[in-house]
């Protein structure tokens, strides 16, 4: 068994994401552009691009918008040249935070990220200061009530690395980052559709927040979300409702 209120926490996070669909669309377009630039425009030969495109369709982005982003990244159309930057640091109570950015102005981005950390009680660290506390992997979360034995058998056959049952009954399938799409599709064909799936930086040890500390930590995380250059935020903080 693992976790505590994983299902409620994930649903809460998803609700916050759904309320920011416009910003998510912008971030997905940037990710598609960079993925195509780094690995080419072929979905079959570029796992990062395939993942970004799948996520874009899941968020109802138009096909022509996605195709234009791929062409810009592949150099077939003019576009902004984005740079990938990762910032690491700590929030309150020692919770680890990773902030991944895509930017065309490094000085602007580091200034805004540093300001968010300092304003809300966190500290911007050095490269590698917290990354070792996370695992780069894919995760698929299934609702409480899913047949654990059947899902475990199907997941392991599909190439998953681990299957975790949380205290609240939800089940989490962990994959390698580049096996995520294959495992997700294989499980869907077997009748197991995940509620949420993503390639992420998964915290190896979580820090649970309640009460005033939870409010403070959420304000820090929300501050990162207001920064246009921020693509993803990963944290060991678990904020209880």
Could you explain how this protein is built, in words?
Helices cover 44% and strands 23% of the residues. The protein is of the alpha+beta class and 241 residues long. The strands form three sheets. Strands 3-1-2-9 form a four-stranded antiparallel beta sheet, sandwiched between helices. It has a four-stranded antiparallel beta sheet with strand order 5-6-4-7, with helices on both faces. A two-stranded parallel ribbon has the order 8-10. It is built from eight helices and ten strands. It has three domains: 61 residues, Integrase, N-terminal zinc-binding domain (Arc Repressor Mutant, subunit A), CATH 1.10.10.200; 76 residues, YebC, transcriptional regulation domain (Alpha-Beta Plaits, 2-Layer Sandwich), CATH 3.30.70; 71 residues, 2-Layer Sandwich (Alpha-Beta Plaits). It starts with 5 loop residues before the first helix and ends with a strand. Helix 2 crosses helix 4 and helix 6 packs across helix 7.
Short description:
The protein has 241 residues and is α+β, with helices and mostly antiparallel strands. Helices cover 44% and strands 23% of the residues.
């Amino acid at each position: 068994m693992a976790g505590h209120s994983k299902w409620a926490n994930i649903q809460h996070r998803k609700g916050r994401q759904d309320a920011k669909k416009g910003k998510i669309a912008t971030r997905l377009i940037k990710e598609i552009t960079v993925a195509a630039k780094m690995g080419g425009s072929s979905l079959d030969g570029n796992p990062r691009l395939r993942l970004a495109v799948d996520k874009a369709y899941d968020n109802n982005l138009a096909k022509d918008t996605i195709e234009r982003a791929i062409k810009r990244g592949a150099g077939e159309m003019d576009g902004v040249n984005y740079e990938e930057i990762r910032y690491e640091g700590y929030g309150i109570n020692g919770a680890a935070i990773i902030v991944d950015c895509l930017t065309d102005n490094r000085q602007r981005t580091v200034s805004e990220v540093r300001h968010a950390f300092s304003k809300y009680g966190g500290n911007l660290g050095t490269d590698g200061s917290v990354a070792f506390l996370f695992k780069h992997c894919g995760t698929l979360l299934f609702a409480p009530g899913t047949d654990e034995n059947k899902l475990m058998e199907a997941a392991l056959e599909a190439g998953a690395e681990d299957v975790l049952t949380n205290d609240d009954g939800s089940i989490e399938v962990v994959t390698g980052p580049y096996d995520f799409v294959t495992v997700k599709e294989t499980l869907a064909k077997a009748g197991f559709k995940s509620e949420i799936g993503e390639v992420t930086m998964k915290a190896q040890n979580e820090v649970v927040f309640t009460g005033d500390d939870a409010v403070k930590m959420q304000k820090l995380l929300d501050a990162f979300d207001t920064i246009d250059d921020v693509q993803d935020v990963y944290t060991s903080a678990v904020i209880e409702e």
